[in-house]
Amino acid sequence: MARRETALQSAHGRLRELIGSEFLTGDKLPNERDLADRLEVSRATVREVLGQLAAEGMVTRTWGIGTFVHGGAERVPVSLSDVMALRDRITASGHRPTLQDAAVSRASAPADCAAVLGLEPDSPVWRVDRLFAVDGVPAAWIRDHLPLRFDGRDLDPSGLVSIDLDMFEFLADATGMPVRRAEIELAAVPADEESTARLDVSLGHPLISATQIGYGPGGAALFHGHVTVRTDVLTLRISRGEERAEPAPRAGGVRPRRSADS
Question: Which domains, and CATH codes, for the chain?
């Protein structure tokens, strides 16, 4: 049963990607046989996935006529204006977040992570890998690094393998210091081999890559992470109120920072 669900999820994600990249609102999709050939699945699987997409409002199906794209490839808007867990942002948009995969392990701190956390290069740290899905479609892969200890307290992030615990809740409880500010640097990148395997996209698929840092009340860095987002599933939105002074450009170009979530 689990294997069948995984196959359906994979076909669901690939068909969403196909529709989003090759079709416009109102376009008629190929018939089930042609779609099955392109996705290399059975016609029964295609029929079931099309039924799911129709229930989501992405396509409309008319008996004897065909299947048409309705409203384009729907994307879930995710605001980056305030510090909030990705799980809660997806839920607030009226969609269902799940963790398709999650793991916690000890690792050597990458150089950029060690510098941010005030550690020696290659110091042991916790690595937390989480793959978030939106309505069953892989949407965001997050890899965070945390120190093994903070302010004399041992950290145990094993609970983060559950969707019920987010990074901000964990850090507030484990360190006694809530995350007051999160900074993120965004970049557009093509999917590499690792992200294609994680997010179920083709090599070269356009993605948003981000480096994020969470800070406590005193300005101490609590975590350092990398986020890779499928822009055909999630739309990142930044809302700004009153104008604020921007930091001076760094040598080599401007790299804007914005509040983000984990």
Answer: 2-69 (1.10.10.10), 76-240+251-259 (3.40.1410.10)
Q: Smallest Cα–Cα separation from 62: which of 25, 23, 14, 28?
A: 28
pLDDT of residue 238: 62
Whole-number Å distance between alpha carbons of 21 and 15: 10
Low-confidence ranges of the chain (pLDDT < 70): 1-6, 55-56, 71-75, 77-83, 237-262
Q: What is the pTM assigned to this prediction?
A: 0.64
CA distance 119 to 91: 35
Helices (H) and strands (E) in the chain, counts: 7, 13
Distance CA 259, CA 84 (A): 9
Residue 100 has what pLDDT? 93
